[in-house]
Design brief:
Helix content: 25-40%
Radius of gyration: 19 Å
Strand content: 15-25%
Shape: elongated
Oligomer: single chain
Strand order of the largest sheet: 1-2-3-4
Largest sheet: 4 strands, antiparallel
Distance between the termini: 34 Å
Structural class: alpha+beta
Order of helices and strands: EHHHHEEEEEHEH
Length: about 150
């Protein structure tokens, strides 16, 4: 039995300039909400609503690739993806999309899981490739599936 691979991805900490830009945008949204409504509470609510959508960027996500599957823990929730349910993987610039489908599907974003590399890209790719069978992308695509900058 091998030791599971554990890593953490925290995009806001890994990209401080993007985090600063997001903070400026949230302050702007709060100011606009306050100016539009005349009440500071609406500015705070608007900024909080938008920041809620940005939680995957703002908060760290912990991963553990074990013998049986991949555990994903973030915002107080955890999810386990069994290796037996992963049929395909697609490599992107910032992470890997694990898909339950043999071929690319429009349902991939809803049924699969996007796994961020964090600062462990080479180790994560090696671990995932060792556990997931060779990808079956569209004809003419590279073996790891369609590439994107997502």
């Amino acid at each position: 039995m091998t030791e599971p691979l554990r890593w953490t991805a925290h995009p806001a900490a890994e990209r401080p300039y993007a985090a600063a830009g997001l903070a400026a945008i949230l302050i702007g949204i709060g100011a606009a909400g306050w100016a539009w409504s005349g009440a500071p509470v609406f500015g705070v609510v608007a900024a909080l609503l938008v920041s809620g959508f940005m939680l995957p960027f703002l908060l760290p996500t912990r991963y553990e690739a074990g013998e049986d599957g991949l555990s994903i823990a973030s915002f107080g929730r955890s999810r386990v993806i069994k290796w037996s349910s992963v049929k395909n993987l697609y490599i992107h610039a910032t992470g890997v999309h694990l898909s339950p489908f043999d071929r690319p599907s429009p349902l991939d974003p809803f049924r699969g899981a996007f796994v961020l590399y964090g600062r462990e890209k080479d180790r994560v790719l090696a671990a995932l490739r060792a556990r997931v069978p060779e990808s079956k992308g569209p004809p003419g695509a590279p073996p790891e599936g369609p590439a994107s900058t997502a």
